[in-house]
Amino acid sequence: MKKTLLLFFTVIMTSVFVGCSSDDDFTPPNYVAFEGKSLSATVEQGGSQTMEVTVYTANQVGNDRTFNINIDGATTLESSVFNVPQTVVVPGGTNEGTFTVELTDDNLANSGGKLVLSFEGQENLYISEPLEINVSKFCPVNVDDYVGTYEGTDSWGYPTEVEIFYNEDNELMINGLLFGWFQDWWGEVITKNEPVRVEIDGETGAITIAEQFYLESTYEGEAQTPYNLKGTGTINACEKTVAISPVLVQGGDEIDGSAWGPVFKETISVTESTGDTDGGDTDGGDTDGGDTDGGDTDGGDTDGGDTDGGDA
After folding, report:
1. What does the alpha-carbon distance between residue 212 and residue 209 come to, in Å, rounded to a whole number?
2. DSSP E strands: which ranges in 96-251?
3. Where are the alpha helices (DSSP H) in 50-172?
4. Each residue of 169-203: pLDDT tens digit?
5. Looking at the DSSP assignment, which residues form a beta bridge with residue 77?
6. Average pLDDT along the chain
7. Can you tell me the distance from the alpha carbon of 181 to that of 246, in angstroms, rounded to the nearest whole number?
8. Residue 65 in contact with residue 89, Cβ under 8 Å?
9. Which alpha helices (DSSP H) does the chain contain, by range?
10. How many Å apart are CA 254 and CA 273, to the nearest integer?
11. Alpha carbons 91 and 121: distance in angstroms, whole number
């Protein structure tokens, strides 16, 4: 802001000195400006936030000065989200004033929005560019909200059924990733499967799956090298969605789908639950080739994708 005022003063002073004699005194212009061109604010889901905005004038006078504030047409927030005073006062003898903006999650879109403020023009008053306040919405992550069995679609278009649960050691587990693609396009039959441990950052919603054993399979009746699984992802707590980019690892080689099509990504919505589970009853996820809730098969039909035992 100081740089902006300095530049403005420089232009005005140059004009004054060119057009007037050196004996004339310089009078600062009647100019008011917001503290910057843009500000940011975050409102927690169901909560509110207040922020103080500073305005500056180029000159000082002995009396208080009042400037009108307008809501610019470029604003995208619903009017129920914000409360802005109609005026701001710069006290006499100073060149600085403040006003408070109140923001509330009252129909605030999950994607947030912007509030654009401008000064109302007055005679012989120079005004700055509008102020844009970018408002984002923060939704805290409650991991327990995501425990259950959910349906979605992977980046290859295969339906997916993913189970998230706590095991007996209170570790968060996930199972069912890539079952549809693996048994249909890849053409292998799952003969053994174990859920994998997953870590979720409660602050950011970041998901991390460290590399660990995932499944064993056969192709045309022959046993294949076992597969590990790793991956990353995010929880959008506002949208109630989980997006995971899983990677299969076989004999040190990573398989992320990009060699044949889209990079693997599975997106599920917690609003599309197939029903709560009793904590992921898969006996730890290890099977002897039988059917499990996680999608383990003996080469037959699975929740992750219909196959005829390896038809590619």
Report:
1. 8
2. 96-104, 113-119, 126-127, 131-138, 148-154, 159-166, 172-175, 189-193, 196-197, 199-200, 206-219, 222-223, 227-236, 241-250
3. none
4. 999 999 999 999 999 999 999 999 999 999 999 88
5. none
6. 84
7. 12
8. yes
9. 2-19, 179-183
10. 30
11. 19
pTM of the model: 0.68
Residue 78 phi/psi, 5° resolution?
-65, 145
Tell me the Cα Rg of the chain: 30
Q: For residue 216, give the nearest of 278, 297, 104, 154 by alpha carbon.
A: 297
- Residues 32, 257: Cα–Cα separation, whole Å: 57
For residues 3-16, give the mean pLDDT: 45
Handedness of CA 269, 275, 279, 283 (dihedral sign): negative
Residue 275 has, within 13 A of its CA and on its CB side, a CA count of: 3
- What per-residue confidence (pLDDT) applies to 203? 86
Amino acid at 296: D
Q: Which of 138, 150, 5, 135 lies closest to 82, judged by CA?
A: 135
What letter represents residue 312's amino acid? A
**Which two structure tokens, joined as six digits, stand for 15?**
């004009």
* Single-letter residue type at 276: D
Task: Output the CA torsion 11→12→15→18 (10° steps).
Answer: -100
96-104 and 222-223: which strand pairing? unpaired
Taking the mean position of all CA atoms in its chain, how far away is CA 148? 22
Sign (positive or negative) of CA dihedral 149, 152, 155, 156: positive
Reference 208, options 232, 234, 173; nearest CA is: 232
